[in-house]
Amino acid sequence: MTHDRGRTFQIILETLDLLNYDLRYAVLNASSFNLPQVRERIYIVGFKRNYLSSRVEFSFPMGQENEIYISDFIETNVQGYSISKHLQNTYLFKKNDGRPQIVDRTSKIKVKTLVSTYHKIQRLTGTFVKDGETGIRLLTQNECKAIMGFDQDFSFPVSRTQMYRQLGNSVAIPVVKAIANNIYQVIESNCTLTR
Q: Can you give the pLDDT at residue 190?
């Protein structure tokens, strides 16, 4: 919304309006939808005017405060996700500035936004777990699925790097589900579709 002082977002809205969509948008935080992650994203909902008899009333679900924390999802004694002691000493903890975010089974917090470049071990934006062979490790696939709202049996048949990219680029499932439910209710109860 702030890219190029808001002009980029304005172009998106104007273009969708020209394509005959009646638009609504909101910034929603995944943490308000029972996820242990702070993830603010803009969501745009458009109703094609060609199919509506009148403007619809639509509101975004706002979620609610909750006590869903990363501690509820941390796995223990994980093998294969460790960050080397060398990388910890020369990069992760090169400054005593409270970064990166380190969590364990006692961390009653919502983690930072999972990004598509998580596999690159970024000290400023990353969240890492106090566990593993070297004492610090990356989030596991199951932990990432939990913070994004994927079912635990959801399969990512790709490399670990690609899994992190896909999850970091994904949307938070409970947020989109709540928006879709509101869209469905509007269409089901308030709209007369024209053909």
A: 59
Considering the domain architecture, whether residues 90 and 146 belong to the same structural domain is answered as: yes
Q: Is the pTM of this model over 0.85?
A: yes
Q: Are 127 and 81 in contact (CB under 8 A)?
A: no
pLDDT in tens, 124-142: 889 999 999 999 999 999 9
Cβ atoms of residues 114 and 37 within 8 Å? yes
CA distance 170 to 98: 28
Strands (E), 37-100: 40-48
Number of CB atoms found within 10 A of residue 94's CB: 11
Is residue 47, in this structure, part of any structural domain at all? yes
pLDDT given for residue 195 in this prediction: 45
> 27: which residues sit within 8 A by CB, 6+ positions away?
1, 40, 41, 42, 43
Side-chain half-sphere of 13: how many Cα atoms within 13 Å?
13
Q: Are 128 and 92 in contact (CB under 8 A)?
A: yes
Q: Where are the alpha helices (DSSP H) in the chain?
A: 7-18, 85-87, 141-148, 160-169, 173-190
Which domain does 16 fall in, by range? 3-66+172-190
Same domain, 34 and 94: no
